[in-house]
């Protein structure tokens, strides 16, 4: 099962200073789902570092509106326990439980937000005794990790979404000007999310090239915007590299 090794220096919250850290958090699975016939799914955290960590777990509804990511309060899913202390070398199971049934035939999207809460020096004696750490004792750090979570109502599931790719509506694209540059807009008219690992353009002469900067999730029925450095050649065909490592043709977005 794929695991996500998250180094503590890779994600900062606004208002907190940057610091190199020897600690890291292992999170798996990296793409948890709650299928239509399931009530819960596990998420595991592991502390491979040399000091204890304190983690807070919250779950937000995940929306994409006008090309922007939005996290909203929700009461459909709970994560228990909501706060855990993990000793060095230990693991913790987090249970993601569905409280409210998902609408039939639909995919619902959430983000599991995992915050590292600063520990006191008394809680972390190894760090307190480190002169290099002590020099910045007045500055505390907190890290944030974000894991996507999808749930499915009756009649919908991830296996169907993966095996029925031919029936999934094609992603739609167009290029617009914004802030003096090119922005690739991609719309997902389907009933399930798409995860882009890249986009390529194929020219009429048969040559192709990658379009840098276009990657990430596009939720069901949503539109996302990707600033791109290069222009899309007129009459070019665009192809999306999606989650199953296949290349799917996109269609021009007709106004």
UniProtKB/TrEMBL annotation:
Pfam families from the UniProt entry: PapD_N (PF00345)
Q: Where is this region: Disordered?
A: 186-208
Specify the superkingdom: Bacteria
This protein's UniProt keywords:
Plasmid, Signal
GO BP annotations of the record are: cell wall organization
What InterPro entries does UniProt report for this protein, alphabetically? Answer: Ig-like_fold, PapD-like_sf, Periplasmic_pilus_chap, Pili_assmbl_chaperone_N
Gene Ontology, cellular component aspect = outer membrane-bounded periplasmic space
Report the SUPFAM superfamilies cross-referenced here: PapD-like
Q: Which residues form the Pili assembly chaperone N-terminal domain?
A: 33-150
Q: What start and end residues bound the annotated signal peptide?
A: 1-19
Q: Which PANTHER family match?
A: PILUS ASSEMBLY CHAPERONE, SLR1668 PROTEIN
The protein here is known as Pili assembly chaperone N-terminal domain-containing protein
């Amino acid at each position: 099962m794929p695991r996500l090794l998250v180094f503590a220096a890779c994600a900062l919250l606004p208002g907190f200073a940057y610091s190199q850290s020897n600690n890291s958090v292992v999170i798996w699975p990296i793409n948890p789902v709650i299928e239509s016939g399931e009530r819960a799914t596990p998420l595991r955290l592991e502390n491979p570092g040399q000091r204890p960590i304190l983690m807070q777990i919250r779950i937000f509804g995940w929306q994409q509106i006008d090309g922007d990511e939005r996290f909203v309060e929700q009461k459909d899913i709970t994560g228990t326990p909501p706060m855990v202390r993990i000793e060095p070398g230990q693991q913790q199971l987090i249970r993601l439980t569905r409280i409210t049934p998902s609408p039939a035939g639909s995919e619902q999207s959430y983000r599991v937000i995992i915050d590292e809460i600063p520990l006191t020096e008394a809680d972390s004696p190894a760090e307190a005794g480190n002169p290099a750490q002590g020099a910045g004792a007045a500055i505390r750090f907190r890290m944030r990790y974000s894991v996507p979570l999808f749930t499915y109502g009756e009649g919908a599931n991830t296996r169907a979404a993966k095996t029925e790719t031919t029936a999934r509506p094609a992603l739609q694209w167009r290029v617009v000007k914004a802030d003096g540059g090119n922005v690739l807009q991609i719309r997902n008219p389907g009933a399930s999310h798409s995860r882009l690992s890249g986009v390529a353009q194929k020219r009429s002469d048969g040559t192709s090239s990658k379009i840098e900067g276009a990657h990430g999730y596009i939720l069901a029925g949503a539109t996302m915007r990707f600033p791109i450095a290069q222009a899309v050649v007129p009459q070019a065909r665009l192809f999306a590299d999606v989650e199953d490592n296949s290349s799917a043709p996109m269609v021009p977005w007709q106004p």
